Structure formats: C-alpha cells, structure tokens
C-alpha cells in the first residue's frame, strides 16, 4: 500500500494537468465514502454518469480499511465526498495522494449543514465513564455528532451543494445537476411528510440503540433514544455501562433494544437477557440496500419501519 501511495504522490504533479484536461468532457469522476451519501450524489448526477462507492454492504465507516482497488478508484477521482474529517479515518493517508486537481467535499463543513453536539453519555443520563470506554471512543469528533446524513434537512443542503460542485467541474451539465437537485429536494420533502406522522406516533417510546448514530433522525422527527449500548462502535462497553443500560430497560414500560447489521448482535442479547425488552435492527447505512439514487429514501423508510415494528 505504501508503495502505491508513494507512486501516486510522485505521479501527482505530472499527470494532474493531463487528467484535468481529459476529464473535463468525459463523465464526471465522483467517489463517495458511504452509501447514503453516495445515494444523494447518484441522484444529483443522474443522466451524467454514476458516482463510485467505497464502504459497501455491511461494512462500517468506523472500521473500514481501504483495499488497493479503492486506492486506484480514489486516485482517479475528480471529486471525493466524505462526511467529516474524523469519521472516515481510512481516508486520512490516501487523501494526500490524490491528484492535486481532486476536490474534497467534507459535508460537515458545508454552510447550512446543521450539526448536533455529540452526546457524551451513552445512556444520556448522568453516567460514570470508565477508562476502557474513554480509550476506545469511536466518535472522537468531541464537538459534533458525525452522523449528519440521517436528517433529510441536511440531505437537501447536500443536494444543493453537490449540484454546485458538480456544475463547476462540468459547466456544460450544470443545468442538469441543478434540475436533479431540485427534483431530489422535492422528493425529500415528500418523504419527510410521509414519515413525520408515523414517527410522531412513536414519540415518548423508550428505545436503546446499539451505537449513538441516530440523533439527527431523532431530532428531525421528534423521537428520542433512551441510551446506546456503546459510545463508539469500536469499543466494548464496560460492566458499569451494561448495568446502567439494563437498569434503564427495567425502568421503561415497553422497551426495545436495536442491533445494527454492521456489528455483532451478541452484545444486544447480553443486554436484554432476563428483561422483557423486544429487539429490532436499525441500519443507518443501508447494508442490505442496493446502492443508487433510491437508497436514501429506502434507508429512512426502513428506519421508520424498524422503529414501528418494535415500538408499536
Ligand atoms: Zn457511527
């Protein structure tokens, strides 16, 4: 890997200019890190090619590592779309090996994106942090929660911004990108209107999530998780945390605990053992969904169905 990146760095200056020239009339070469973001990019690009995707299927953005083929995909990209500087840590090194002409779009830094502060306690109640949890914290943004794509309001901001960035790279297709973004925003508004009453019916119900990834969805639709099993998915919860979560479940009237397809479900079984909690699955990435323009809509619809299935 080191060799590939070194070669890319050396080649960067020499081939950058040629690539920009050749690229300006070929299909736009866009790479997106995770499926929901790839889906929004695909909708804005429709009719002018398709973006490429790095984190596929049941892989997690928190534990993903880049293969040589991904490095090649990145080296050919004109535009790379990531969520935040810290979420996709697998990009830290290769991002410096990109062609100098490549534009990096960091969604968390776009004007108009609403960022929510990271919830520091996984039970969202006064909670003793044990050293083990602090050391392995997966969401080390510290300041904001990186799962910003799960708010359809943020998705609409992303649509507009991608249309502008794509249009700047291909001025001859700018009108298409703008029209696609308008269509996407209208569909997002429709989705929002469909899901809102369904989720409003679940307000006040208790549920525990696997890792604290749904805050943007919760805030947008007025529901609220009572806690999460892990602070960040890379770290195993300590005994004190499991006890706190089990106590939280015992206090709720009809509790529900959600697993995630990206992580071992065994921990969820440990948490609910001996309680009357039901279980479901929440997927904030779309592990089982077909990548493409429809994925974002299916993702939010499936989150709603999973919540209804367990909480109703
Ligand atoms: Zn996460």
Structure description:
This protein has 312 residues and is α/β, with parallel strands linked by helices. It folds into 2 domains: 2-108 and 142-190, Rossmann fold (3-Layer(aba) Sandwich); 196-311, Nitrogenase molybdenum iron protein domain (Rossmann fold). Helices cover 43% and strands 10% of the residues. Helix 2 crosses helix 6 and helix 5 runs antiparallel to helix 6 (174-200). The longest helix is centred in the middle third of the chain and has 27 residues, at 174-200. The chain is globular and about 60 Å long. Zinc ion (ZN) is lined by residues 62, 147, 211, 213, 233. Zinc ion binds next to loops.
List the helices and strands and how they pair.
Layout: H1 2-23, E1 30-32, H2 35-45, E2 52-53, H3 68-75, E3 79-82, E4 103-106, H4 131-135, H5 152-169, H6 174-200, E5 207-211, H7 215-221, E6 227-230, H8 239-251, E7 256-259, H9 266-272, E8 278-281, H10 295-311
Parallel strand pairs: 1-2, 1-3, 3-4, 5-6, 5-7, 7-8
Helix pairs in contact: 2-5, 2-6, 5-6, 6-10
The chain binds zinc ion.
């Amino acid at each position: 890997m080191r060799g590939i990146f070194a070669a890319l760095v050396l080649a960067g200056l020499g081939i950058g200019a040629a690539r920009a020239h050749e690229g300006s009339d070929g299909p736009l070469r866009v790479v997106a890190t995770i499926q929901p973001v790839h889906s929004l990019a695909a909708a804005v690009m429709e009719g002018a090619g398709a973006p490429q995707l790095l984190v596929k299927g049941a892989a997690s953005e928190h534990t993903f590592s880049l293969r040589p083929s991904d490095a090649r995909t990145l080296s050919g990209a004109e535009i790379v779309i990531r969520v935040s500087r810290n979420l996709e840590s697998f990009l830290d090194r290769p991002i410096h090996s990109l062609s100098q002409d490549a534009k990096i779009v960091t969604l968390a830094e776009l004007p108009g994106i609403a960022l929510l502060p990271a919830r520091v306690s996984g039970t969202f109640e006064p909670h003793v942090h044990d050293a083990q949890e602090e050391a392995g914290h997966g969401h080390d943004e510290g300041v904001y929660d990186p799962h910003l794509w799960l708010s359809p309001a943020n998705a609409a901001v992303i649509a507009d911004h991608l249309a502008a960035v794509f249009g700047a790279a291909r001025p001859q297709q700018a009108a298409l990108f703008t029209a696609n973004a308008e269509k996407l925003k209208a569909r997002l508004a429709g989705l929002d209107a469909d899901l809102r009453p369904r989720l409003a019916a679940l307000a006040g119900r208790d549920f525990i999530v696997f890792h604290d990834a749904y805050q943007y969805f919760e805030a947008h639709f007025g529901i609220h998780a009572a806690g999460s099993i892990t602070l960040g998915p890379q770290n195993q919860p300590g005994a004190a945390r499991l006890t706190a979560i089990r106590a939280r479940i015992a206090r709720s009237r009809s509790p529900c605990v959600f697993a995630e397809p990206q992580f071992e479900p065994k921990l969820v079984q440990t948490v609910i053992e001996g309680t009357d909690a039901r279980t479901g699955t929440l997927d904030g990435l779309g592990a089982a969904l077909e990548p493409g323009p429809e994925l974002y809509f299916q993702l939010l619809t499936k989150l709603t169905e999973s919540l209804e299935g367990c909480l109703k």
